[in-house]
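Appendix B, record 7
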Amino acid sequence: MSREDVIRKIGEYEPANEQETEDKALMLSWLEHNDDAFSRENAIAHVTVSGWVVNKDRSKVLMVYHNIYDSWSWLGGHADGETDLLSVAVKEVKEESGLAEVHPVSEDIMSLEVLTVDGHEKKGRYVTSHLHMNVTFLLEADSESALSIKADENSDVAWFTPEEALGKSTEPWFVERIYKKLLAKS
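Structure tokens (predicted):
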């Protein structure tokens, strides 16, 4: 998938609410005007992906305890120059959870969001506050499969019921604006 394909897919995406409408417009403008938008070398804003991982009967959601955010959260990461965002989402979920098998429910974008990231330390280096132009995909995995943490990013990984998942996150904005929306879509 090329950069132009990503811009086209985001452009074709039908926003589910006002947050997605506004974020879609900002993302498209940023992508069209910043050749380095897929690289974290762009210190202002760059593309990231998330996987909203559910089990087959949708009774469980996979989450990790994220070290930087100090909260239970979804899984994902930076595009780091890649434009095949679905592949990046699957790769990141596997890396962060230890799951061997993760499958897209659909190749379509599940949601869009522009996320603020506070300044923080990463690998002994200060990373300034910035934005993540995030694309989310719905992924599926077996909730009985073995899990493992990725110690440099998370300190736990677990399956939760949808209600438990909402209660585990200590980030109110994510719970209200993102996770509830994703639960309704999955």
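Remarks on this record: Residues 166 and 175 are 6 Å apart (CA to CA). The radius of gyration is 15 Å.
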